[in-house]
Design goal:
This protein is of the alpha+beta class. It folds into 2 domains: about 80 residues, Glutaredoxin; about 110 residues, Up-down Bundle (Glutathione S-transferase Yfyf (Class Pi), Chain A, domain 2). It is about 50% helix and about 10% strand. It is built from 9 helices and 4 strands, in the order E-H-E-H-E-E-H-H-H-H-H-H-H. Strands 2-1-3-4 form a 4-stranded mixed sheet, covered by helices on one side. The longest helix has 24 residues. The chain is globular, with a radius of gyration of 17 Å. The relative contact order is 0.16.
Length: about 210
């Protein structure tokens, strides 16, 4: 398998974690989102990803896009170790938390939004940073409330990582990069520290990638 990835992309980070948890071999094909006007806009890449976005997983000549769809594909084709439980209610709760991050939080502060705020709306960097921090912390606040309302486990749901952890850890990485104050998010912080003790999460970290800067 080939994973078209950018080291700081939260979406690609999620897929790297899932691949590592499942012990699946893959090669990273770097797509730099800033160089050359953004390599994601090059015709050879947009033929794989019409949305001009990473990640793309190439498996048996199939080009798969959207991080959560890719993770579900990996879950179906390589079910062990599982990232979703057998219980339907638990699966729905896990997916909901993953979507809180991947759909309601991450898109508001991703690269193309920030580039629009800069190039089209002419907002200063300090204003753009406050925008990002506002929506990252709002989203993580929702996650914190959900986690705090559940029985405490090592991870988001119980004592094994799930799709929810695959989504949470990249978002916390972004929050830390923005110097967000996470003191009010004890459950989120605890799970982040626990996950980062695992090799699968360590290997997926942005600073460990071949294209890291």
């Amino acid at each position: 398998m080939n994973l078209y990835s950018y080291f700081r992309s939260s979406a690609a980070y999620r897929v790297r974690i899932a691949l590592n948890i499942k012990n699946l071999p893959y090669d990273v094909v770097p797509v730099h989102l800033l160089r050359e006007g953004g390599q994601q806009h090059a015709p050879e890449f947009t033929s794989k990803s019409p949305a001009h976005m990473v990640p793309v997983l190439e498996d048996n000549s199939q080009m798969l896009t959207q991080s959560l769809a890719i993770i579900e594909y990996l879950e179906e084709t390589h079910p062990n170790p599982a990232l979703l439980p057998s219980n339907a209610v638990e699966r729905a709760l896990i997916r909901a938390l993953a979507l809180d991050i991947a759909c309601d939080t991450h898109p508001l502060a991703n690269l193309r939004v920030m580039q629009y705020l800069s190039a089209e709306l002419k907002l200063e960097e300090s204003v753009r940073t406050e925008w990002s921090k506002r929506w990252v912390m709002t989203g993580l606040g929702v996650v914190e409330k959900k986690l705090a309302a559940r029985p405490q486990g090592d991870y988001c749901f119980g004592n094994a990582p799930t799709v929810a952890d695959c989504c949470l850890i990249p978002q916390v990485f972004n929050a830390r990069r923005l110097h967000c104050d996470l003191a009010a998010l004890p459950s989120v912080s605890r799970i982040f520290e626990r996950c980062m003790q695992l090799t699968a999460f360590q290997r997926a970290a942005p600073e460990r990638q071949i294209d890291a800067e």
